[in-house]
Amino acid sequence: MNLSVVIPLYNQEKIISKTLRSLFNQSLPKDRYEIIVVDDGSKDKTRSILEAINNKTGDNLIILKTIKKHGKGAARNLGIKKARNKIVVLLDGDIVATKYLLANHLKWHEKFTDNNFAMVGYITWFPKLKITPFMYWLEHGGMQLNFDNLKQNQEVDFKHFYTGNVSFKKDFLIKNGLFDEDFGRDMYEDLEIAYRLYKKGLKVFYNKNAVAYHYHPTDPKTYSERMLRVGRGSKILFKKHPELKDNVALSKFTFRTILNQIFSPIYFIFYKIFRNYKWMGHYYNAKFFKIYMKGYKSRD
Predict the structure, then answer these.
(1) Residue 165 to residue 92: CA distance in whole angstroms
(2) Pairwise CA distance, residues 40 & 8, whole Å
(3) Residues 104 and 133 in one domain
């Protein structure tokens, strides 16, 4: 049993060398895995960097490019279809792998061989990044990832199918449906496939030993741009699966949401005074909900 690592890339000239270097230096023998990078129409130097790296490496690096459709879904689909191995590991282009990441993915699948069993690994900020209070909040109870309450080998629901560090049996996706490419470069293509496959029997388990580092410093302004894409993606998601509208974060305009909008300036003052992440969370939940709704309403 071997691995195929699939990585979608869009304008990631600043990090792709570090990402690939971490994958070339795995504990797993190089003949046990291949690396498939899919350039999704990058407008920076991503492509030329990939070609330069490819000239210096062996044949376990495969470079592809999306043509007719763009977005992470389309890029991942292309990579999955070209994958030669039974197990596919999805990573994002801003992920730096720890030395034993792929070995942990492979070891898990060798133990749990059911075709419908998938594994999600742990993602945390890259150790050498300066972790701001905002970034800390995103990781611990914020809007992006939620590992704090997960236990080793726990079966998780479809909302924890984090495609920045996840693996599955290729045949299960080929049989039951790949990523929906209608999302383009908007968000929630990962939630959509997870929910659709969950209804077809997908079981996802958490393995905290499969550690990957997120090398993507962010701030409220940058994250606001992401929330616009989340809002636009939500509109697509709910058209395809209306039942999810009451089951996905930010999708409900509740009484608590109204209170957050009214009291958000007070929340911000309380955070500045007490430096308490609870108040920070209330403030940013209110701020980003407004941006999310703007994106949601802008999508036809």
Answers:
(1) 7
(2) 7
(3) yes
Q: Which residue in the block uniquely carries the two structure tokens 């459709």?
A: 69
Question: Do 140 and 243 fall into the same domain?
Answer: no
State the Cα–Cα distance between residues 51 and 106, nearest whole angstrom: 28
State whether 233 and 152 are in the same domain.
Answer: no
Among residues 159, 188, 214, which one ends one of the domains? 214
- Is 130 a residue whose pLDDT tops 70? yes
Which domain does 104 fall in, by range?
3-214
Task: Identify the weakest region by mean pLDDT among 139-143, 192-196, 250-254, 288-292.
Answer: 250-254
Provide the sign of the torsion angle of the four alpha carbons 146, 147, 148, 153, taken in this order: positive
- CA max distance for the chain: 58
What pLDDT digit, counting tens, does each position of 251-266 carry? Answer: 555 555 556 666 666 7
In the chain, % of residues over pLDDT 70: 90
Per residue in 140-166, pLDDT tens?
877 778 899 899 999 999 999 999 999
Same domain (yes/no): 20, 153:
yes
Rounded to a whole number of angstroms, the distance between the first and last alpha carbons of the chain is: 44
Q: What CATH number is given to the structural domain containing 185?
A: 3.90.550.10
Cβ contact 36:7 at 8 Å = yes
> Do 207 and 99 belong together in one domain?
yes
Distances (CA, A) of 254 to 31, 98, 231, 281: 53, 41, 17, 16
Residue with tokens 């999805």: 90
Tokens of 296: 């949601």
Decide if 71 contacts 40 (C-beta within 8 A).
Answer: yes
Question: Taking a C-beta distance cutoff of 8 angstroms, is the pair 293, 231 a contact?
Answer: yes
Q: Which of 101, 160, 94, 155 is nearest to 129 (CA)?
A: 94
**What is the model's pTM?**
0.92
Same-domain pairing of 168 and 249: no
Question: How many domains, the chain?
Answer: 2
